[in-house]
Amino acid sequence: MDKFQEMQAFVSVVENGSFVRAADVLHTSKAAISRYVAELERRLGIRLLNRTTRKLSMTDEGQLFYARCIDLLNGLEEAESELSLRRGEPSGNLRISAPVTFGISHLAPLWGRFLQQYPKVSMEVSLSDRTVDLVEDGFDLAVRIARSPHPTVIARRLASSTMVLCASPKYLKRNGTPKRPQEITEHNVISYTYWSSKDEWEFIDRSGKVETVKTRPRLHANSGDTCVAAALQDQGIVLQPDFLVYDALREGKLKQLLKDYQTVELGIYAVYTSRRQLPLKLRSLIDFLVESFQKPAWT
Q1: Cβ–Cβ contacts within 10 Å for residue 218, how many?
Q2: Given 43, 53, 97, 205, which residue has the most CB atoms within 10 angstroms?
Q3: pLDDT tens digits for 71-125?
Q4: Are 254 and 168 in contact (CB under 8 A)?
């Protein structure tokens, strides 16, 4: 049995949440998908999926194998994309969704270059920190920043970003500098509304122990720029991604805190709905973004 088809079937089941939907996406039968996955598990000698009448979930081994499958399938996709780029010229309209701050600071400078490189392509860029439904909202691609991409989408990693705890020197002089995570509770906190863990901030010490701090924010904002602006005005401590605060840190306007602790690392992903029959215009955009973030400015 074709190992590629087995991997493709397994990945499709994970991404679509069922054997039936995976069969629809791959234009085959549920029986064929079940056969491919069963043969894959038999050949590997491990269970990849936990199956119940209500839902599917990956085993620990399945999660590891899924990540490797994605790498291999993406590699094949890249090879096909390179050949396709030699055969034709991308054309048509692309609809793109991106987070507001990242979209303005790090994506906006790229769009002109892309359009100049592909003169037959047009673009619609929508900036929102809301997580859009690619199919329902009609987007070809979204740029998302998260710990990991949602399993229902295909994702290409563009870059990494680390959350940075920081405050202005003037605020710290007035209120003192926290030495341990729990001391943050004694300070004014400026919180980002869409942060996945809400007002709980995680820190990892050198031994690997995770410390969770339940903050009591003085200011909530659904804009990272607003959070950073308040910190620059000496109003408290923020936890924001390095791509947003690196200039202020370099210029000494903000000071990084708790450097002995690790914070959350995020991935910056280009996500889309299907790797099958990917339009040339979209392949070109994804490859362009991957290349553009080989050396991110904030690193």
Answers
A1: 14
A2: 97
A3: 888 777 666 656 655 567 888 999 999 999 999 999 999 999 999 999 999 999 9
A4: yes
Q: Is residue 299 part of a domain?
A: no
φ, ψ of residue 35 in degrees (nearest 5): -65, -45
State whether 135 and 118 are in the same domain. Answer: yes
Residues 13 and 45 in one domain: yes
In a domain, 55, yes or no: yes
Enclosing domain of residue 280? 90-158+266-292
Q: How many CA atoms lie within 13 A of 96 on its CB side?
A: 24
The percentage of residues in the chain with a pLDDT greater than 90, rounded to a whole number, is: 57
- Judge whether 195 and 72 are in contact, CB under 8 Å: no
Band (pLDDT 50/70/90 cuts) for residue 18 is: confident
Are 224 and 101 spatial neighbours (Cβ–Cβ below 8 Å)? Answer: yes
Give the model confidence (pLDDT) of 225-272 as tens digits: 999 999 999 999 999 999 999 999 999 999 999 999 999 899 999 999
**3-class SS of residue 287:** helix
Rounded CA-CA distance 10/16 in Å is 10
274: left (phi over 0), alpha (psi -120 to 50) or beta: beta
Residue 151 domain-assigned (yes or no): yes
Q: Taking a C-beta distance cutoff of 8 angstroms, is the pair 229, 256 a contact?
A: no
Residues 6+ apart with CB under 8 A from 126: 95, 96, 97, 98, 132, 139
Distance between CA atoms of 231 and 227, rounded to whole angstroms?
6
**How is residue 165 written in tokens?**
């705890």
